[in-house]
TrEMBL record:
Location of the protein in the cell: Cell membrane
First-listed, main subcellular location of the protein, grouped into a coarse class: membrane
Record membrane topology: Multi-pass membrane protein
Family under the similarity heading: Belongs to the binding-protein-dependent transport system permease family.
Ranges for domain ABC transmembrane type-1: 97-296
Superkingdom assignment: Bacteria
Name of the protein: Peptide/nickel transport system permease protein
Keywords: Cell membrane, Membrane, Transmembrane, Transmembrane helix, Transport
One Pfam family from the record: OppC_N
Amino acid sequence: MTELNANTPLPLVPEPLPPSRGQLREIWRQFRTHRGAMVGLVVFVLILLLVGIGPLIWRIDPTYVDFRARNLGFSAAHPLGTDQLGRDTLARMMAGGRISLSVGLVAMAIALTLGSLIGLLSGYFRRLDAPLMRVTELFLALPLLPLLLLMVTLFREPLGKSLGPAGGTFLLIVIAIGATSWMQTARIVRGDVLGLKQREFITAAQSIGTSELRMLTRHVLPNVISPIMVAATLGIATAIITESALSFLGLGFPPDFPTWGRLLFDAIDQMQMYPWRVILPGMFISLAVLSVNYIGDGLRDAMDPRIRGR
């Protein structure tokens, strides 16, 4: 048997390589075969273009009140009509979409960061697994909508005084949604990390004394990116639905800052006379959520090697 001495080189650890261009092309090829994912991607990109570039073309102020143009139907001057105060519905739809999607993206980022961190620590460190999973199960057992309503009711006024009505409400809603939406991501990441710890390159890296921080950042995290990306797409849809529900209940943004859920709330009283005021924001919420869900399904299939190889 060969003995190791100070001059004997240590064995190289087979680190996981980042996806090559060929692998990325294969993932994209598999993604394109998912018809629902491609349709969802096109729809979501169109929605992003509408709310991002649309206000630069359609320059009507969404908060401008014109009592002489109240309750107008579809016309060249107002393609989607006006509301009971004479505000342009198209401008409000675009402004509302920008706010709703921003809430979804920021809340998703918070939930994803928190869930991924807890999942990594719980899956890798055995001593942290039990307490972190008990905390996760506690959050899963909480009634989330009443909890959100309580958080908004208690903190909206103090934050509004400190940061302004829009800034305070935005910060409160994204933190509230993000802090109550991380549990599924944590459980998914934990499961993948537990399986990853049995791999040969992890054992080899541990045998040569690799630090825990380097193990997590260089060996573990790159291999759980796929479920994190899928969870990110589904998290956007969840955040949009939750923000719309809060706004529909009148606990979201103030009336001067329209969101799709706020537009639904404002249209309740006149729903029978002007049904399109309910149909339009509801349709955009549904399209955004469905498109993101289909994108998530496509990413999950494309990034799963067991399916990609078929």
